[in-house]
Structures are given as C-alpha cells and as structure tokens.
Give the backbone structure.
Amino acid sequence: MRMSAEERRESVVRAAMIEFARGGYRGTSTEAIARRVGVSQPYLFRLFPGKQAIFEAAAERCVEETWRVFDEASAGLTGEAAAEAMSGAYMGLVEDRDQLMMQMQLYVSVSAARAAGEEEIGESARRLWEGLFDRVRIRIGGDMKDATRFFAYGMLINTLVALGYPQDHRMWTGFDGCEGAE
Amino acid sequence: MRMSAEERRESVVRAAMIEFARGGYRGTSTEAIARRVGVSQPYLFRLFPGKQAIFEAAAERCVEETWRVFDEASAGLTGEAAAEAMSGAYMGLVEDRDQLMMQMQLYVSVSAARAAGEEEIGESARRLWEGLFDRVRIRIGGDMKDATRFFAYGMLINTLVALGYPQDHRMWTGFDGCEGAE
DNA sequence: GTAGATAGTGATTGGCCACTAACTTGAGGG
DNA sequence: CCCTCAAGTTAGTGGCCAATCACTATCTAC
C-alpha cells in the first residue's frame, strides 16, 4: 500500500492517462484520478502542483510510449520497411483506445489553452510533437513528405477510433493495400 | 434586438460554434455563449432543451459548412481535379481556426460521451462523418482509398492547427507537391 | 385598446470541483 | 523505545455553472 512519492507519482501518471483519455481535461475530476490510483484526492496535490501538471505529465508519457511502440516495432529496420512495421504497430494500438485518445486530448487541450492565452503550453506540446515526428521521420528515411503521410494516416486512425468505428467497418477499408501508408 | 426564436437559434448556433471550438464542450459555459449572442444565459434554455443540444446543433452545422466549402470549391469538377480544389479550399480554412477546431471538439466529445456510456451520440456523429466522407468520395471519383487519403491529410491539418503551427513552419512543408493529397 | 402570444430577463439554487489546512499513521535508525 | 520524517487522510472552502422559476416587455390581431 504505502509507496515512495516517486512510485506514487508514477501510478498517478498511469491513472491520469486513462482518465484524461476518456474524459478530456475539463471532463476529468482529480477525484476520479485519485480513485483509480487508490489514494485520497487531496494527496494528488502533494505529488503534483496542480491538475494541469498531472495532465502535462500524462501527455508527455503518452508521447514517449508511442515512440517506444514505434521504436520496438521497427528495431533494425529503415525506410519503407520501418514505415510498414510502425504502421502495423500503430494499428495494433487501436485495440486500447486510451493511448490514442490521450493523444487527441493533448491536441485539443493545447488548442483550448492557446485560446485562453496560455502559449507556453502550446510550445511544450509542439516540442513533444516534433520530437516524435522527427524520430519517426529519421527512422523511415528522413523524407519530409513520407513522414507527413505517415502522420496523416495516424491522425485519421485517431479520429476513427474517437468516433468508435469497429475495425471491420467499411471506414477502415481505405487503408488496405495503401502500401507504406499507415 | 428582438428576433424570432428561429433567428435567435441561428445566432446561438453560430456563437456556439466559436465558443465550443475554443473551449471544448466542458470548457465552454452557457454563459459564454449567451454573452456572445447578446442574450441572457437562461434564455438559451428556452431555445434549446440543454447544453448538449446546443453542442449537437453546432457540430452538425460545422459539418454542413465544411461540405459547403468543398462543394463550392469543386463545383463542376470530378476526380483528381476535384480533390485538388477541395484540398486547396480546406487549406484556406486554416485561417479561421474555429471551423477546424469545432471538428476536433466533435470527435473528442463523442469519444468522451461514448466512454460515459452514451452511445447514441456516437451514432449521430458517425452519420455526420459518413455523410461528409461519402459526398467527398463520390466527388473525387468514388474510390475508397483516395477518399481515405484525402481525409487523412485533413485530420493532420486539424492537428497542426490545434498545435498552433503557423503556415510557414517546416511542419507544413510535407504537404507541398503532395499532389492530390490535401 | 386590449387580449393573447411570443421574446426576453433577474434572481436563485443545488451540485460539483480544484485546492488548502490541519491532523494521523507508520516505518526505520540511534 | 521513541523520535523523526515522509506518506497519507478527513474536513472544509470558495468559485463556477447548468438549469429552473417567476417575472417583464413587446408585438400582433381584432
């Protein structure tokens, strides 16, 4: 039960990824996160300065994990082969909605923060995006257009998952045989 | 000042599109919408049964407007030419963030509603999506893969706009010369 | 001009939620 | 054994917000 603060923070980040993925930033209460962790709600504020900090940690972790998935799937590969391997791995993520939805929540939350005048959040989110984008780009050969195409199909996948299309729906048929494209 | 209920509803929908686009569903107060309309907050509940109904009306309008933009841009064209025309038109929308962000808010809000067990919302959102998707698909020749590619690049555009990339940023260079791809 | 309908407001409320403060519990070392 | 310090809790607060209710103002038709 009793853990070090560092271990607790880790489990808070994991719980936050799930809750924020499902409810969005405003739609997720710190109470819900605490309940999932199995800890009292006020204790979260000992571990993090505020709700926003929890969200940022979850967002960063989400992007890291996405890269980890890409990296493992494409280990030792380059170019077209790497792109195909990563595409397949991303398709596998469709199974656990939470990972993909947390990404979406990051994007729209950044947009809301920017609309509210908090531009620093936008900057840190763009750093995360570019970090992932460039690592993928290098892995598949360095071409900007190839990387753009890769991420374009990725964003469409996120959208179809958000809308709740099952994997055997016709909306997914446009991906078949779309070689190299996610 | 004084308008018919129908005219008021119309202006509420317009205001709601802007506010929801910037704040998301949970992050937008009915007070903010009412203020933008220039009407008292309680009056919104005379015009609509609740906040959710306002959001749904705004979402539907948003998709309609997107099709209108595509339709006008590609009038009289088909196939590749139509795709290019619509791509250009969508790129033009990057200027007014609100239209694109309202789309994103629709997708993540549906996801949240689904996570909360309200599946009917998902169904109506999928109807909107498929309506737009199929109209575009027909216009560009009927091929599923072409339509999928078109929307993939569209979703990436939405993401880059959400993250706040200016149009001259390197993140947009992968679109150049990507013929037919949005 | 007045009666009925339609447009619109002010005051309020009950619930939720991020965050704070003050207190309690428990493990390890001297 | 008890002291200390970190882990964790209970109770509470102030602010916000969707929704309701009772009311006022304005238009239209006769």
Notes: The radius of gyration of chain A is 17 Å. Chain A has eight helices and no strands. The longest helix of chain A spans residues 51-73. The CA atoms of residues 146 and 165 of chain A lie 26 Å apart.
